[in-house]
Amino acid sequence: MNTLYITGAGVSAASGIPTFRGEDGFWTIGSKNYTPMEMATRAMYENNPREFLAWYYHRFATYRHHGPNEVHHWLSDKNLITQNIDGLDGKAGNTDFIAIHGRLDQMTLFHHQGDDVMAFNAPWDNVNEDNLHNSLLEVFNINNESPKLNESFKPYVLLFDEYYTELYRISEAQQRMLDADKIVFIGTSFSVNITQMALDIARSQGTPIEVVDPDPTHVFHPNVTYHKMTALEYVQQQG
């Protein structure tokens, strides 16, 4: 059976990375002046890269040395699309997973959305935390307080006011959904576009789905099985 796994922040909780919408989640913690939903935007990166990069560094890059947990290792040989940018599936050995929202450990040239660019390793270890704001601007090649197209760099992450492009392997992700005999959602709140896309395809194809979550979101689908448990409990049950 060709089972497609689609994972969210709940999968990385056992690695010590906060889920996005829990009490300690990334989207409940903002900067001094902006909410997370305002911070995680292309507009903020373009207009206030100093604040954007500092927020991104504190909220994401500080977790870059965390390691994969048992769930990531179980998923290491699976057909996988993850919403997580932590890169832990790669650290666990999955060589063909789709990081549909980007990768914390990578960055790209700052480009018009849809342009053909490559992602490459982000030099986070070159950041000087004693002079954080200026150091981040230097690392991302930003002068005069605003990034320049095709000169500056941008974290390889899909922001709220951006859309899925081939940089994020969106066509391949859709094809994997179409080809799947079953789709298993693990640790996701169904609050992002990619899960809605998968649900729409599953409904149109008649593909059975499973939802793994301690407090699962009810989804409209004629053939759904709920597993009211953590991701870790689920993979231990699967063996």
From TrEMBL:
The lineage of its organism: Bacteria, Pseudomonadati, Pseudomonadota, Gammaproteobacteria, Alteromonadales. Transmembrane segments: none annotated. It comes from Pseudoalteromonas shioyasakiensis. This is protein acetyllysine N-acetyltransferase. It comes from the Bacteria. The keyword Ion transport does not apply. PROSITE patterns: SIRTUIN. Residues 1-239 form the Deacetylase sirtuin-type domain. The keyword Transferase applies. InterPro entries: DHS-like_NAD/FAD-binding_dom, NAD-dep_sirtuin_deacylases, Sirtuin, Sirtuin_cat_small_dom_sf, Ssirtuin_cat_dom. It holds the Pfam family SIR2. Its EC number is 2.3.1.286. Gene3D superfamilies: SIR2/SIRT2 'Small Domain (3.30.1600.10), TPP-binding domain (3.40.50.1220). Keywords: NAD, Transferase.
